[in-house]
Design a protein that fits this description.
mainly alpha; Potassium Channel Kv1.1, Chain A; 3-stranded mixed beta sheet
Length: about 160
């Protein structure tokens, strides 16, 4: 019998929203906090897997501080971890991508890379190149090739 992913995600989201079985609270620098399940976060993030299994205080602490990620951004990432759904747009992509890199949520990181790649145009290529040079090697390499083509007169995206 196959696992019904949408139903499983609905159950996990309900458990999180009700606070049932949540075993840690993530507290952000802006003081927003999120009750979550360690096991769920560990299943999607090598950062959380290392954080919660390292034998240090975070392994058993009820409240764990997460730095350098805004609460609104963390909420979107946590929702994605629980539901595998997210709406990426120009208002959130530049916050979500670095946060997913920090947290090592690789599936979401890949979605962010694809989103940026799909949004490439001659008008925004330089700006995306600057941003991608820090986070998205695939996009950065593609952009550098296209910029070289532009110099030779055959630029297209």
């Amino acid at each position: 019998m196959a696992l019904n992913i949408p139903v499983a995600c609905d159950v996990l989201r309900e458990l999180r929203n009700s606070g049932e079985y949540c075993d840690v609270t993530l507290r952000m620098d802006d003081q927003q906090s999120f009750k979550v399940h360690r096991a769920i976060l560990c299943s999607c993030s090598s950062f959380f897997r290392a954080l919660f299994t390292n034998g240090m205080n975070e392994t058993t602490d009820r409240i764990v501080d997460i730095h350098d990620i805004k609460g609104d951004t963390m909420n979107l990432i946590i929702d994605f971890i629980y539901t595998h759904e997210i709406t990426l747009n120009e208002n959130n992509i530049y916050e979500i991508l670095p946060a997913t890199n920090q947290l090592q949520v690789l599936e979401l990181f890949s979605l962010c890379e694809n989103y940026l790649y799909q949004k490439l145009s001659p008008e925004n290529a330089i700006g995306i190149r600057e941003f991608a040079s820090f986070f998205c090697k695939l996009i950065f390499i593609s952009l550098m090739k296209e910029i070289q083509k532009q110099k030779s007169g055959s630029f297209r995206l």
